[in-house]
Specification:
The complex is a heterodimer. By secondary structure, chain A is α/β, with parallel strands linked by helices. Chain A has two domains: 31 residues, no CATH class; 209 residues, Alpha-Beta Complex (2-enoyl-CoA Hydratase, Chain A, domain 1), CATH 3.90.226. Chain A has ten helices and twelve strands. In chain A, the strands form three sheets. Chain A has a seven-stranded mixed sheet, with helices on both faces. Chain A has a two-stranded antiparallel sheet with strand order 1-2. In chain A, strands 5-6 form a two-stranded antiparallel sheet. The radius of gyration of chain A is 23 Å and the shape is globular. Chain B has one domain: 2-enoyl-CoA Hydratase, Chain A, domain 1. Helices cover 43% and strands 18% of the residues of chain B. In chain B, strands 1, 2, 3, 4, 5, 6, 7 and 8 form an eight-stranded mixed sheet that branches. Classes of the chains: A alpha/beta, B alpha/beta. The interface between A and B is large, with 70 and 63 residues.
């Protein structure tokens, strides 16, 4: 069997940094909200899913924090955790090699790469889950990112479960050059297969989400959700201002801007994501069950009456004599 | 399990010119552009316009023409050779309506079982307020989706600059070819330098370090063939265009022989083969589960 189905022990999320300090945030810390400049008590903020109680600014989350907030307690099983990046271009610059950069990032972030993949349940409903960690090189999409997402998609198909991606990214990873760009094609191609298998992909766009991730799998999901005020776009505001000298309007590229322009299905605040996910998954599940029952009924009938199955037979309200409809086709 | 992609050695042949020289050649305004290729290689071309939603993008053109005796769909970025034409063509930077037109025309090609030929020549997708408002990212993503599942053979050729998602949006092909003095990169050298070192002036260094030349990308297995330019294409356009036409013709014939256009089962295999092609691109190492 493929190695990625092995249940692997979790990577320890937080290592002490170079000075031996624990990096987890002490509970007594005060945090200034970038949304309203209020000083917030860190523990209160954490208890509120890291959403400002004053202005509802959604603070950025680490991938494992998101998984903990979204999934049923103890249900998350990580996949593909030992796929490690390497340096296909032999990339190096003034600040050293790409390998060195990766090693420092891994030590600082406590993660081995920019996405975490696995399976979990949300309100008891199973799903495959791929979550970006913006603290890992801006959750830039390189080879490992693409490979983990594709494997999770293939695993979802094999298990017949939906896929959810929670996205935040600065775009493609520069250090892997064209390998990174090709992950856009690779991920989208895998998701075509998920769709062909009748399984939904739910995408959540969180702050910030740009470039190659927005221009590939994350925006062609069956349902595209965004967190309030998340910044989402193709080109970043700085690039647009520099190249066009255009003054950008207030609220440009926010989730609300995207909703207004028809680019996302809905905005979901963090405290409603669990309920919304469960609600959507229930609809897809119901639709599948109804279709499967109809199909089973048709098969049974076909077996009994030796008739060719027609799509008419799928209609739930068929008349008792509608076995004749096969001839009407 | 070890599913390790081999670490790639930096064994690109000794380049007579630097990567930055290639960038400058790729951007030379006198270099042949898509319409020049159409003029020399394609007969009875009928340009088809518009995305049926918003507008017609002059930076990404498409239509039906006769190539190598066969009616095909042709798509390509179009740059100008002078300032006036470049303003009309938006310097070859396509807007969402360009990608939506391309996507529409690819579906059209599929419906009538016409192979698709694309010419990539853009520094990147248009980065403006209007393009963002009209969903540039989604337009590109939808084009990728369509290409990944398209049930006709696709041959893409980078004829000048292949920059970023704006290039890949017409590049998810069964065969990807590059002219010797073209470049293909995850972002423009200026963009890469800006992201990596916050200094766009370091573009020449980014061009070297990011391995964007045709020979390097062939070594990586990301592209399938380098089309030689004995003289840079802007100095001898005829020769470069003829060589490109011969290469495209050869690849298209191979694809059609392996995946006949009338054979639905073969076309399923074609899409599966395209999946495998892109599925395998990447570089990682894997520790066995312990």
């Amino acid at each position: 069997m493929r190695g990625f189905f092995h249940r692997q022990s979790k990577f320890q999320p937080v290592d002490p940094d170079e000075n031996g300090n624990d990096q987890s945030i002490p509970d007594d810390l005060w945090v200034k909200c970038p949304g309203c400049n209020e000083l917030l008590y860190s523990k209160e903020l954490n208890d509120n899913l890291r959403v400002c109680p004053k202005c509802e600014h959604h603070f950025r989350l680490r991938a494992r924090e998101r998984i903990a907030m979204l999934t049923d307690v103890g249900s998350f099983q990580e996949w593909s955790s030992r796929i490690l990046p390497q340096n296909p271009l032999g990339f190096a610059d003034g600040s050293g090699t790409y390998e060195g950069r990766l090693e420092r990032t891994q030590r600082k972030s406590g993660e081995l790469e920019a996405v975490i993949a696995g399976e979990a349940t949300v309100e008891g409903k199973p799903l495959a889950l791929v979550v970006c960690d913006f603290d890992f090189l801006g959750a830039s999409m390189g080879s490992v990112f693409g490979e983990k997402l594709v494997r999770a998609t293939e695993a979802a198909i094999e298990r017949g479960i939906p896929l959810m991606t929670i996205n935040a990214s600065g775009g493609a990873r520069m250090h892997e050059g064209l390998f990174s760009l090709m992950q856009m094609a690779k991920t989208v191609a895998a998701l075509n297969r998920l769709g062909a298998a009748g399984l939904p992909h739910l995408s959540v766009l969180t702050d910030p989400c740009y470039g190659g991730v927005t221009a590939s799998y994350a925006t062609v999901a069956d349902v595209v959700m965004a967190e309030p005020k998340a910044m989402v776009g193709f080109a970043g505001p700085r690039v647009i201002e520099q190249t066009t000298k255009q003054k950008l309007p207030e609220g440009f590229q926010t989730a609300e801007f995207l909703l207004e322009h028809g680019m996302v299905d809905l905005i979901v605040s963090r405290d409603q994501l669990r309920v919304m996910t469960a609600s959507l998954l229930t609809h897809y599940e119901n639709a599948r069950v109804v279709a499967a029952e109809a199909s089973a009924a048709v098969n049974a009938e076909a077996h009994g009456e030796d008739i060719v199955v027609s799509f008419h037979s799928m209609a739930p309200e068929r008349a008792p004599d509608s076995a004749q409809t096969g001839e009407a086709l | 399990m070890t599913d390790v992609a081999d670490p790639i050695q930096q064994t690109a042949p000794e380049a007579p010119v630097s990567a930055w020289d290639r960038v400058k050649l790729a951007r030379n305004p006198k270099r042949p552009h898509t319409l020049d290729y159409l003029h020399d290689l394609v007969a009875d071309f009928v340009e088809l316009h518009g995305d049926r939603t918003f507008g017609d993008d002059q930076a990404l053109i498409g239509g039906i023409g006769k190539f190598d005796g066969r009616s095909v769909m042709i798509l390509g970025h179009q740059k100008g050779s002078d300032t006036r034409e470049n303003l009309k063509r938006n310097f070859g930077m396509a807007r969402p309506e360009g990608y939506r037109k391309a996507e529409r025309l690819m579906r059209h090609a599929e419906k009538f079982r016409m192979p698709v030929i694309t010419f990539i020549d853009t520094s990147g997708a248009d980065p403006t307020l209007g393009s963002e408002e009209r969903g540039q990212a989604i337009a590109i993503a939808e084009s990728l989706v369509t290409m990944a599942g398209l049930r006709v053979p696709i041959v893409a050729t980078v004829i000048g600059e292949g920059g970023s998602g704006g290039a890949l949006a017409i590049g998810v092909a069964d065969r990807v070819l590059m002219l010797e003095n073209s470049v293909y990169s995850v972002a423009s050298p200026e963009g890469s330098a800006s992201i990596l070192w916050k200094d766009a002036a370091k573009a020449p260094e980014a061009a070297e370090r990011m391995r964007i030349t045709a020979h390097e990308l062939l070594e990586f297995g990301i592209i399938d063939e380098v089309i030689a330019e004995p003289a840079p294409a802007h100095e001898n356009a005829r020769t470069a265009i003829r060589a490109t036409g011969q290469a495209i013709s050869r690849h298209l014939r191979e694809l059609i022989a392996a995946f006949p256009l009338h054979d639905d089962e073969a076309l399923d295999r074609l899409v599966a083969a395209r999946y495998t092609r892109f599925r395998s691109i990447g570089s990682w190492q894997e520790e066995s589960a312990g």
